[in-house]
Amino acid sequence: MSARTSDTPVDVAARLRRTAADRPHHIALRWSAGVRTYGELHQRVDAGTAALQTLGIGAGERVAFVLGTTPTFVEVAAAVLRAGGAMVPLLPGLAPDELRFAIEDSQAGVVIVGPERIHEVRGLADEGLLGDCSVISADVDPEEDGSWERRCADAGEPVRVDRSADDLAALVYTSGTTGRPRGAMLTRGNLAANQDQSLAGRFQVSADDTILLVLPLAHIYSLNVGLGAAITAGATMVLVERFDPSDCLQAITEHRVTVVLGAPPMYVAWVQGEALDDADLGSVRLAVSGAAPLPVPVIERFREVTGITIEEGYGLTEASPSVSATSMADAPVPGSVGLPLPGVELRLVGESGQDVDPGDEGEVWVRGPNVFQGYWNDPDATAQALTADGWLRTGDVGIRDDAGMLYLVDRLKDLVIVNGFNVYPREVERVLLGSGLLAQAAVVGIPHPLTGEALVAYVVPLPGTSVDVQALDARCRTQLARYKWPSRIEVVDAVPTTATGKVRRIALRGN
Questions:
Q1: Where are the domains of the chain?
Q2: Parallel, antiparallel, or unpaired: how do β-strands 452-461 and 438-448 relate?
């Protein structure tokens, strides 16, 4: 593919340039300390671009950043792309060893770190664990020599850089729920394609929309479906750095938010608390949940209280991330993750390698312009994930109904084998959640001397309810085959999850 100039909207930085030219006075960002227009954001990104170039960042160079859901994150991400580099966005909640691994593995030349983790990252650098990587503080002391703010103020004008859709835009490290994270290589074209694909069906966001962004921007869902799609559409983004159920509801009311981009922990917290009963959500036209399955009882309780039916989507880092959404169907169907997005091909493949019939289980395979290029420095894992003709083997098991709606069954890696029989934890979780008394349920396999593995269920009650473990056990015995019965059911206050709500089954198996 021939190179494109930075005026062509092939990535967020170029799309920001276009939006700023079209609507310079339209508000791009709102946050607790103020507002910023698209014109102002564009100028600050240019300053950040020049600052990175003075640090030697050019075509293909990686820049890691450990920043919260703040204006600085937005500026840094766009500046890295505008300088010709590739983003390595890292969650502030990562452990020191996880931060070190990602910075070292990505061979980042620069890491920009906010107040939450700056001391730890500097400590890693002082110990010689980050190689030649330069550590830059941001949002700590703007007058500090060498800070991001001082470098931007002193940098001057940036040099324009030509990049193509095939160039690396981001190394996004997988969540590591099943092992050591891997860096998914996403091109500028991958990210731009999925921004366009996401803006379809009922998720046709426009410049008139105001979007709540409280999920970590370092997660690909918030980064591309939230930030990327919002800039593409020219919408206003409300940045909330930490999720608090009451504070977020207040932000929705105060800023007249029209689109809520959420994940299961947010909606679970809202239905468990009392603040939702008195909240004014009259401005909200669309509530979306992604990154992990949302229990149907939570969808139903949220709709009962607010009148809003949550739209669900399905995706994964390697698909930039969105694959399907209920917003593509005539109406959302709780429990389903909807229909494929425009330009996304989807297959369900059985053990024989052939497509399965409607209603039968198969591994979800995906192909489209949003599918990644492989794993950074890991050709073996890349070969396992991508077929020669471009299909991504997701590792997720699903079924499709006669209308083509996709329902996820489980992860292949989460499969539990009891007495030689395959058990998908989500099948058991659905039966437990069907009691209508639970906010969450998580099922894992543990070693068993006679059956090989056995099932253990951890359940979290809905507020105001009590859980009868014997009744739940009886429900499982009525609706599930014997080998799918949990060997025990434990009532807990919460189950361990990642920042976006995926159950950390490794942590549960350790109990």
A1: 36-188, 333-412, 415-509
A2: antiparallel
